[in-house]
Amino acid sequence: MSRTRVSVIGASSAAATALATTALARELLRRQARTARATIHVSDLGEEAHVADRTYKKKYGDPLDLLLLGDSIAAGLGADRPSHTLGAQLASRLAKATGRSVRLHTAARVGSESSMLPAQLDALPEGYHAEVAVVVVGGNDVTHRVRIAESTRHLGEAVTRLRADGTAVVVGTCPDLGALRPVPQPLRSLGSRASRQLAIAQREVATSLGAHAVSLATVVGPFFVSRPDEMFALDRFHPSSAGYRRTAKALLPSVLAALGHLDELPFGHHPPAGAVTG
Question: What is the mean pLDDT of the chain?
Fold first, then answer.
């Protein structure tokens, strides 16, 4: 057999082996993704978050309206009680910081993707107007492999509608899914990369449209990695009451800045494009 023929056979064999390895890797990832999605969906926490909508610090008076949009994190799934949800903890902190009572309205729904933001806005009571809206979404887009361009298009449309209504907007970008220890490797690493890529795109879109953005992977992600028993709820996927407390604390500076109550922002907070900060 000639050397040329041996080389061709060897190259063909190597290519076939590479293709087979790639196919096996893809099948492994598909199986892991199905398992992860099923585990996340069939949560011990159920499908409904606590209802926390009410007026916080009513005695302060001069109420401002706070709107929460997005997925299970924005809805507060995993909190032990209504007062521990993201919206409740943020409303309470916002009231104390501004000296005004805060009326919380949570339009966020468990399981939502970015494509569901328009429906959440459409479902708001007629004539409703929020002074500030906080949007946290993206994790379900990653787990369902929604293209970044599609995710950010829906986010951009929601931000545009809110800004046109005179509402200040703060976007908490997609958390780092690499913190989800129950998700096996290598899927967890791929999820981490995908979620970080989406977060960057969300930040760019939000700030370009006049919204503030908070990089949750940067400002709270390290706490979820170093203190998983404290920061995660029983299902190991959603934040616990402590996790929401930490997230609300992290979002507050940008919420205050969006309302004109704060000039200088900490690391991981991004003002609208062209804005001048102290």
Answer: 86
